[in-house]
Amino acid sequence: MYLSIKPFNKIFFKNCYYNSLFSILMYFDVGIDDVLSNNIPVYSIKSDFILNEYIEIQREDKLLFDLGMTIVEEYVEYESFYELIMNNIKSKSPLLIALYNEVGFEKFALIIGYKCDSSVFVIHQQHSDSLTYVEEMMTVKELTRRHLFGNKQKLVRVFLFNYSQDHARKDIRRCAISFIDNMTNNIEIILLGLKKLKDYSTCFSNILESTDIASYSCLVKNINTIINSCRVTRMVINGYRDCFELLKLKNNIESNWCYIRNKVMKSYFSKQKICESTSLNTVMRNIYVYEQKFISEIINM
């Protein structure tokens, strides 16, 4: 028995849980734009590194409930796990569990089918450092072994997804409008984040001038959150014809961050200090200008 759920690889949003959630929503023909437009990205600084974080407007469980989706968390005995899988897949309800390695949490595995030989079809990250999600067959024994790693309770924690079709979804245009309204209503928080970006130039220069090459890895990791949020924003507003200028500005912002990331990664892998700190600081200032224009467009819409 097998559900026709496909891996979701278009964007990366917040964490790996959402790649599974978006696969499920698309299977039930529920738009992911409703979830994306409910979150606005803001600049933040943590441990001297710039990044993007999301502000959730409406509680996500309430939002999903309004879309017809309920998520139930259960703890089941190992011996009952395969029976739970079979019953839920027969009811066209996918399951999600967490997998662990010797370090701790590794990734989520979305269970979308089973075979009579106690093996299951799962969708998960190709490996922990990858943003690519693939479908793979895994035995229930391996699945539970990796879930119960270090778990003293010896219970399998499972998330079950159920969908009721008696709910209406917004169209893509209305999601874009909702996203813009959410940004407008939270403009003070966004502007505070923008100020953090402007003030970040000193920290950024110190990192670029640092002989600690390991700090480049942290910088790239945090820049990735910004690049990913740019792609999320473009995906949400792409369906609204009045957003052409916003799309253009956000594309410029993303391109400039990608340029910085590529230069930093090159130095990190070559284990050499960045020798273009002046030009990268100029790119950072350009990003701030583009972000200012983006916010001005939002305010004036």
| Total E-strand runs | 8
Q: List the quaternary state of the chains.
A: single chain
CA-to-CA gap between the ends?
49 Å
Give the helix proportion (percent range): 40-55%
Order of helices and strands: HHEEHEHEEEEHEHHHHHH
Q: Structural class, judged by helices and strands?
A: alpha+beta
Largest sheet: 6 strands, antiparallel
* Poorly predicted segments: none
Radius of gyration: 22 Å
What is the global morphology? globular
Strand content: 15-25%
Q: What is the overall number of helices?
A: 11
What's the domain count? 2
- Report strand order across the widest sheet: 3-8-4-5-6-7
- Average pLDDT metric: 89
Describe this protein's structure.
With 301 residues, this protein is of the alpha+beta class. It has two domains: 16-30 and 69-163, Cathepsin B, Chain A (Alpha-Beta Complex), CATH 3.90.70; 172-300, no CATH class. Helix content is 51%, strand content 21%. It has eleven helices and eight strands. Strands 3-8-4-5-6-7 form a six-stranded antiparallel beta sheet, with helices on both faces. The chain has a two-stranded antiparallel sheet with strand order 1-2. Strand 4 (95-100) and strand 5 (105-114) form a beta hairpin. Helix 8 (201-209) packs antiparallel against helix 11. It is globular, with a radius of gyration of 22 Å. The mean pLDDT is 89.
